[in-house]
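tool=predict chain=A
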Amino acid sequence: MRQKRFHADQERLTAKTFLVPALFLAPFLIGLIIFTVYPFINVLLISFKEDYRLANQTFSGIGFKNYADVIADPYFRSGLRNTSLYVVFVVPIATVLSLFIATLLNSQVKLKGFFQTCYFLPMVTSITAIGLVWKWLFNFDYGLINYLLSLFGAKAINWLNNPVYNLPALIIYGIWSMIPFTTILLLAGLQNVDPQYMTAARVDGASTARIFFRITLPLLAPTVGLTLIVNMISASKVFSELFPLFNGNPGAAYSLYTVVYYLYDQFFVKWRLDRAAASAVILFLIVLVLTMIQLFIQRKWEK
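tool=predict ok
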């Protein structure tokens, strides 16, 4: 019996059993190498090439000068600060609001399918079109947000032309744009929670809040952790939201640089590919470290 099992294991390791799956995976692996692995390695190498020129592929030396120049650049530091504030505010607030909305959608409410469709619509709408709508909402003279503020006796806020309010405007827009995708993920997680746990808790007399925080939320922890990681990575790459709101500029008086906008400015405007590559690597390392910290906290929470 043991000899037959050993013989079967040997058959699984033959060249035929290896090559057949490899041939099916080859198109995916080739595309992964060409469009993901090679660009990543190339960016990493360019980030160490000092005074790199794309036209003739020349550089003056290898070192950390690009990283030093990027870190010393006030525009990069401003972008790092703005991106950090954006992530700190947008991700938690959007997650909490999405969890509240997903909980309501998961309950037995009328027109449940209609509301789910409404919350999903922003995901299939052009970000430029949505940005133009929000640009009108933030308008100083006839924007809807200032009109609502006036109903409470507040003065109109120059959201888009005053550097002080540029980041809050971007954060509000970011929270709204992140809610649909986050709601879909959390709703899928809630629908996988066994309702028998909640039924048993209600029979024992547990309140709705106690059931949510002691049963639903712990069972939803893996989904919440995944959502936080995905949203943090997405928020760290904030870039396209700036174009419709501020006419392609990083805020009023160039006060709303983000890390990705700095990368774009160095690459496409100033043609400093070495600095653009260095800023991309720095952003990658920051996101990687934060992701590992979140994964560590999530494992501790699940235990």
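The longest helix spans residues 74-106. The radius of gyration is 25 Å.
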